[in-house]
Input
Amino acid sequence: MKSSWRLAIALLALGLLWAGLAFNLSKPTDAAGYLRTALQAAESAHDGAATGALIGHQQLDQQVFTTFAVSAYEDAGKALAGAQKKLAGTPPPDPASAGLRDRLAPLVQAAVHDLGEAATADGDATLRAAVGALQRDADQLGALIEQHQ
Amino acid sequence: MKGGGVRRILSIALGILTAIGGFVDIGDIVANGEAGARFGIAHAWVLLLGVVGICVYAEMSGRVTAVSGRPVFDLVRERLGPRVALANLTGSLLVTVLTLGAEIGGVGLALQLATSVDYLLWVPVVAFVLWVALWRAKFSTLENVFGLTGLALIVFIIAFFRLGPDTGELWHQASHPGPPSGEDWGTYWFMAVALFASALTPYEVFFFSSGGVEERWTRKDLLTSRVNVFVGFPLGGLLAFAIMLTSATVFHPLDISVDALSQVAMPVALAMGKLGLAAAILGFFAATFGAAMETGLSSAYTVAQYFGWAWGKLRRPREAARFHIVLLVSILVGVAVLMTTIDPIQLTEYTLVFSAVALPLTYLPILVVANDRGYLGNRVNGRLANTLGTLYLIIVLAAAIAAIPLMLVTRMGGG
Amino acid sequence: MLIGLHLLDRQILDRDGEPVGKVDDVELDVDDDGTPYVAALLVGQQALGERIGGRLGAWIAGTARRLSPDYDRGPIRIPYDLVAEVDSAVNLSVHREVLPDPALETWLRDHIIDRIPGASDAS
Output
């Protein structure tokens, strides 16, 4: 009797925890929640773009070898992909949030594009251009984050 | 001085160097790189606190082993009884096996940086080589080789000076602990707990004391044990600090957070070019592989010592069949965790949180045993060891209680 | 001697210092005067599980019993006469070969470890 009670209570607690988690995950985000998610995505994108620019600089200065650069671009790409996924997975709850998304999404998109350019650049000139573009993306993302913090 | 004396000094020196290189593992690399990028060196005090803590407790467990001839975990069951010790074993084992997974992933990542072949393809290879090394090779040789190669991480110290750091700013960060603008106290404390756990990782004491038993330490080896602890660990902590410093110098001013191993190595490339970068990657590889050997062995040590089975890398495998099976299974579990394609860096972050939770399980019994005259005679803890030990137990408890709530509130430090 | 503090859960070593197991439980007997004394040390996960008790203990003991070649074999029993000295470990006066082999160790050795090259090489 005693142990079956204990089991029942444990199961109930587990069920409640599960339900709470499910509720938490499925409830529509409010404006504040969206802002937080968007900022996280922006920070992640900023990290990816700025890191990409850093790798590009190091490549231009002959400070890294190719295998390292390839992996490092890949890691930066993961940060950008994470940002894209976060943005795509959270629908904006109100017009103001939609406005934020409409400003952020193209920046992330541009960073993804420019990182690809840098990673596949076949000469110093193209690489330098891509690095410059990445730097601008990072700066713009940084400004956006600052503005909303 | 006779030849024996020289050899003894050489062996002590080798022990120190191995301890320095062996101190740093994937947890230290990740936690210090991340903390440096996001908070500058505002966590410097945590690292100092952690290094003193591991010294205090590693000294105790080394002394217990040298005097009683028994590894610490062996005595835990005698003093705490089979039930509590079993709970203890479960907690420590879980953390150690997860850490093993993280270390194998770290080796894979280091190899990826050197070859640009995806780390997941390296994982099975690394696991197999690891197993062969622990099955066949002369362990002390391997330990020394990887410990010494781990010293390649010294490039982080050189790189730090060559980066022309803003020492005034760094000093300001170190002397004003707290989150910089854009970060909050929650994430600051979360990072602090992770760093603290990375310095005090439980497997280090299991490994240290079990190794002492295998090398048949006696009271005469107390000095060796103490020199290893009091010189080797702080210098190892210095390497970890250098990682934090370089990250704080390069990434913090740019507001870039670090979440990949490649980023941790970038400051070195920036300061020293390809050669420095190669040394950093070699250091990552050696440190994580060495730690993978230690965590693998520690998993098997704890289980075998709880049940009283024959254990040890000096025995022929067929004379310690259960020990070697636990070792093999631990490696397989570590690989299985990685094969879920969880990011090894993320896995490392989780293991640090769980380590923090499990810390009291490791350190409370050591304090109890180190005060037991039945084992230690007149070598029980003195007043200093007990004061520090108790103080650290309180800190460790606080970190353990705070770890999970902080993880949930800060979403793994995501803010 | 306090059984609980000085004997239970202590490591057992044979005459060469090789580990035999833990004192997972003890077998008590009563002599002619009615004084209880330790007749034997019991070794193995079965004895341990039964001492831990509860659902967990039953599970440990049950698993150990199922793994042993003979279901009713019971734990390894070491007569207390074989104990030479008790210090930080329980030291036996005999070599461990004369004691019954732990079932799990034997099975793992014969079926897995021995089939891997190098199992009997010292490293």
